Every structure is written in C-alpha cells, then in structure tokens.
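Troubleshooting: if your tokenizer reports a length mismatch, compare against these two reference records.
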Amino acid sequence: MPTNFLFDGPEDARVTILLAHGAGAPMDSASMNATTKALAAHGFRIARFEFGYMASRRTDAGKKPPPRADKVMPEFIAAVDDLGPTNGPLLIGGKSMGGRVASMVADALFDAGRIAGLVCLGYPFHPPGKPDQLRTAHLLDLKTPTLICQGTRDEFGVRDEVETYGLSPKIELLWLEDGDHDLKPRKALSGFSTADHLKTVATGLEAWVQRVAK
C-alpha cells in the first residue's frame, strides 16, 4: 500500500525533510503541526507520513498499540522509496519514536547515498523513569550526520544524562532550555515560549544543513 504523505513548505525547496510521528500521536498532532509550520517558514519542504498502526486509527479498524520500533523500520524505508526523487538533499527523522526509527535505518540509507542526514525531535533515549533502559546502542557509532533537538527537562533523556552516553561524533545536540518532550518550555520559569524554541530549531537546522548537506 503506497505511503500517504502530508506536505508543507515550498515544493521547489532545496532540502526536503521526511518526518514520522511519535508513538502516541498522529502526523498532524498539534506538536507536529507547529514544528512543521516553523520548518516550512524557513524554506524547508516537509513530508509527513504515518506508520500503519497509526493510520489504522483513522479507519474502522480502530486503535492499535504501537509495535516495537524495529518492526516498523521497513515502513520508514518504504516511505523513502515512495517519496521518490527530491530537488536536493533529503533528511529523515521524526518526533520521539519516529526519530528513533529513522535513526535505526539511517546508516543504510546514508551509505547508499539516499539521504544526507538525520533530524530527531525529542529523542527517546530511555523510557520515562527508567534511565537504565537505554535506547542508544546504535547511536554510539552512527555514521549519518545527525541533529537531535532535545528539551533540557525531557523525561526521555535530560541533559546531564545524555552528556554521559558517549554518542557518535556525528551527532550534534541542540538543547532547548526547559523544554519537555514536545520541546515546550514553561515560559514563566524559562522566559521562552514554544514558538521561540521552534524558531531556534528551524534556525539551528538551517545552519546545520549548511555544514552537512552543502
């Protein structure tokens, strides 16, 4: 079954970003919509898609629980196939689980010259409250240029934890002060709004792309 995409941003953009959703919310969740809008405003072409279990929630089949991340790796590769040729560099990534799955298929696609990089929005380094159950083994020697945008109070991996992981030198982290797993800060405490942080993500991504995907 062909992948159903949701497109935003200029069709003739030089850089296209293929994004998958998190485990519990669809590709058009409020968080994904806001992030996509910010990225599109900076000239990126965004393509969003849903894994089969999430797409089925829009049908009579109803709600299905998310499968293990490795089970949907073929669906991410199929989405890259179905997206087809792009004007210029293609980045893959996503929110939370979507970014994790992208990170698990990235090196094979990068080695084949099919993608230029990986973008993770709130990477789930471990389940909340379980810092010993790390999901980082494949990130230690990742070869794909990667940007992880992470809130400093993300319960899936705070800054003090992540900085001890020994991640691949190909991975850059963009920290967003007081951001949660949706990159949302508490404005009264941090002085930042979600819109501020999403603008930082977009400008940071723009600068990063200039370095890794010229």
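Reference record two:
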Amino acid sequence: MDIKNTAKQFDKVALEYDFVVSLTEKQDDILVKSMPNKRNQVLDIGCGSGNKSILLSKYFEHVIGIDISDSFLQIAEHKKNAKGIKNIQFINMDAEKMDFSEKFDMIISRTTFHHLNIANVLERCVSLLNNGGVIYIKDNVSDNPTPAKWTYIVGAFLEFWPDCKQYGFKNAKRIFSHNVSKDWLSHLASDIYLSESDYHKIYEKHLPSCNFIREGWAMNVIWKKI
C-alpha cells in the first residue's frame, strides 16, 4: 500500500464521503451482537470520520480510533467534541505499523482491510487482543478484484431514484455527485477486493474457526481469541 497516496485520496473525498456514509449507513446489528462481555478497551482500525468509534463509545470504557487521513480525523474530532464524548482518542497511525503497549478487548475495522497487507495486520491484531477478546472485520467482497469504473457510474444512476424516495432529492443529488466524482472514482480504481473463497483462504489461516457472514457487498468476519 502506498500510504501517502491513499491518505491524499481520502483527504480529497473526506467531507462528502462522511456525508454519504452518515446518511446511508445502516445499524450495525452484527457488530453489536459480536461484542465481548469484557468491554474495557476497543480499537477501531480505519476509523474514518468516527461513526463507529462513536457507536463503540456507548459500550466500551475507552475507544482508540486510528486512521491515515488527517481530514477524516478532523471530522471525527469535531463530531466527538460536538457530542461531548470523553472516552475516544483519535490517532493518525498506519495499521501496518501500529504498536500499542496496551491490549484490547475488541478490535474492529470497516472497509479498510482491502487497503492493507491483510496477513501482517491480522497478526498484529491477534497479538494486541486480550484472551476472550473479539476481532470484527467488515470489508468489500467481489468476484472481480477491481470492478471497472463504469460499473460504479451505472450503479450511481440506478440508485439515484431510490435514494430520492428515501433521502429526498437534495440529498440524493449529493450522494450521486460523490459517487461519480473524479476523485472518488480514481480512488475506487486502486481498490483490490477479495472474493468469497479468498476470504476463507486468507482469514481462516490467521483466525482459525472464524465466522463469516455475507451481507450483500460486504463480508463480516468475526473471531474470538480463546
């Protein structure tokens, strides 16, 4: 991963991406149901604009969110402060180089692992997890490792009218503009996704007996450290 280039790509789209995700993201029932009984510390890898970290702050005593985009982290800090949340710490940190003296009761990540050296980061996650702790990863799954740009553009057109009905014309227009923007499409062109079979091959090697839950475009991976 070219971390500097990826950070720059996210910095360019951070504000609009946060708007779209904050508006359209559905409740994370699988994440909540996967939480361990012990809930002291949790790590959010690729925390972005902080939505999941804010959710986690309701369940855990302390949340650490890491990301490589300063723009995302600024948005996350603003949200945290606006809500008066005191138990979240946001840090600019590369997941492939993360090093903490403390351990965690849960480590989560959403739509980030396809940017990472998965084996390397999973090994770090396992070493940072307390016994009885849970790793929860949600990421893109696709039979085509890097879908063509035109598929995203067609998808944006197909989603426009349903979005109008659900979110209103103004919001739907903003979602559409983000989804077909040059900066966002350029970012997507660099993404490489795993197929469902690759998920099993790679994740089962590092997280033995982990659970897989397919959810449309995404794969949820849940593993408990015994």
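Descriptive notes for reference record two:
- The two ends are 31 Å apart (CA to CA).
- The chain has two domains: 3-143+193-224, 149-185.
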